[in-house]
Amino acid sequence: MAFKKDEIIIIEPKEMFVGKIDAPVTLTEFGEYENEDCAKANEVVKQLLEAYDGKIRFQFRHFPLTLIHQRSLKASESAVAAGQEGKFWEMHNILFANRRNLGTTSLKLHSKEAGVKSKKFLDDLVNGMYGWQVQDDIKEGHNRGVKEIPAFFINDEMYTGKPTFAGLSAALDAAIKKASRKKPEAKKKK
Question: How far is CA 41 from the centre of its chain?
Fold first, then answer.
């Protein structure tokens, strides 16, 4: 008698958002958890999510610079693992807050703080259970032209300025205005 192996469905990073699901504008960041500029950008993103509540949704995609930050890959995998229990954003913010303390044992402690209940968290991390999802993000980043992090995209268009609140706000305002102009056209076509 053959045994059927359980199929494991993994929630991909590209499926994890914060903000209004049908927001007219999507802000996407490619970054990593050990990078200081990404940590600063995370604070800007928090402000943007508050200021643009209901108008934007945000997605973080993993782009660990493993030649510089050896722990960033496992940190990214730990965020994806936490995301399987709906705790991605909690883990995401905890990783940034503890970016100088991202060893495997620390990641397990951070996961508990984020509210992850899985008893297999550490085993999955050690065995690279979510490594392919992080690799897919890296590949997509390369395909989109990401060379430095943090890299932002607004509705799939690369943002080229500094990731400041003022700069990103101006770009988001323009994207929201553009999206609102398209809505009446879409209604007319029906």
Answer: 12
